[in-house]
Amino acid sequence: MTAPVPRSAGWTRWLPLALFALFVALVAWGLYFPAGKDVPSRLVGQPLPEFSLPPAADGKPGLARADLAVGRPKLLNVFASWCIPCAAEAPQLAQLAAAGVEIEGVAVRDQKPDLAAFLARYGNPYSRIGADERSTVQLAIGSSGVPETFVIDGKGVIRHQHIGDITADDVPEILAKLREASQ
After folding, report:
1. Distance (Å, whole) CA 29 – CA 24
2. Separation in Å, CA 168 to CA 118, 135, 165
3. How far apart are CA 70 and CA 68, in angstroms?
4. Cα torsion at 120, 122, 157, 111 (round to 10°)?
5. Is the CATH code 2.40.50.100 the one for domain 52-181?
6. Most CB atoms closer than 10 Å: which of 40, 135, 166, 173?
7. What is the pLDDT of residues 125-183, one digit of tens each?
């Protein structure tokens, strides 16, 4: 004859199911309300690291840290010819350049013929374009992807980071950050 099961042990039978349901609910919550996917640079407010990149495009000089610390704020745009959002932001970069903003470029893991075709198709708002063939500068400045744009003050300090492509709605904010960086 078997011993009777105490009544208090009945709820323990449902504990694994309850824990599993809690786990499913937490996963569903995380999928429905994901954390931000942007990875901000820890270098905002810090000087740019030293770097010197060779020219990425014919007819444009390469880019070094010294080119960004010349007394006036500039934009540093990290982009690539293979990047679809980079093509989407091209009209806004052209608009910023037409407004007198000086834009420097870092071409990430790109080939000269591909870059030349990209610039011919979407425009070339850049004063200088450096070839970052191994993403060393991209990673050194805290960029996690392309496109990303940084506002650099006249002393070579990163003042603002814009993650993703610049949309028409972002242009006023970028211009405001450039004005702030000039003060």
Report:
1. 9
2. 20, 28, 10
3. 6
4. -50
5. no
6. 166
7. 999 999 999 999 999 998 989 999 999 999 999 999 999 999 999 999 999 999 999 98
What is the crossing angle of helices 90-98 and 171-181, to 10°? 40
CB neighbour class for 135 (10 Å; exposed up to 12, middle 13-18, buried from 19): middle
H or E element that contains 149: strand 148-152
Residues 107-127: b if buried by 16+ CB within 10 A, e if exposed: bbebeeeebbebbeebebbbb
| Bridge partners (DSSP) listed for residue 130 | 55, 106
Distance CA 99, CA 110 (A): 28
Cα gap 57→75, rounded to integer Å: 18
**Domain range list for the chain:** 52-181
